[in-house]
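Suppose you are handed only these lines of text.
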Amino acid sequence: QAAPVITVDGPSGAGKGTISHMLAATLGWHLLDSGALYRVTGQACLIEGVSWDDHAAVTDIARHLDVTFTAAESGEILVAYKGRDVSAAIRTEEGGRGASKVAAIPEVRQALLARQRDFCRAPGLVADGRDMGTVVFPDAPVKFFLTASAEERAERRYKQLISKGESVSLARLLDDIRERDARDSSRKVAPLVPAEDAIVIDSSGQGIEQVFDLVMQKVTEKG
Ligand code: C5P
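From them, the structure of the protein bound to cytidine-5'-monophosphate can be written out as follows.
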């Protein structure tokens, strides 16, 4: 590995995204949002008229994925496919479903592997995902696995979507989260499991600042 990597894995809604952002900003390191790559792949399929179930065609899209990440002044990261801004589209519930579907295709994961490793540049990388510590950066010196109860993750997601003006039902979100958890943790390739050497943190009932303090404490200890 060209530079040190801190991996942050876990299910959706556990606070990985926020913690990874805070960590990268505090350390001044690069950030890899690997979920965004799967989300863009799913979105590209919609744009190109390819079914998420057509494995050969989805793999072809992943291999040639024309995606760019640019930091907006707000600090938000804008995601574009073929130069077209898809930042909002990939964050919808449909975007999440597409990502989870295409992420279950082994050839798609393989196609995105080198691209993810390219993010590892000096001075360091914070890698956010599901298999960062197990598959993509197995040699990372510091690995986290963030989790929270399904109910709490559904509630957090609910608040997020409502604040964006999406109309959703909490019960439906909880069902979706359980279904996605089951799919992500039972798939044959890169299932969602903590790396053997990962520090597991359950964020249920904890504020983000509290979780971040704990993460920073561990990083300082290890570094
Ligand atoms: O993290 P995020 O919610 O954006 O990820 C969307 C979906 O992409 C996940 O539900 C998962 O199926 C897939 N994913 C993955 N491996 C990663 C990151 C995301 O399979 N490293």
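What can we learn from it? The chain has one domain: 5-222. The longest strand covers residues 142-147.
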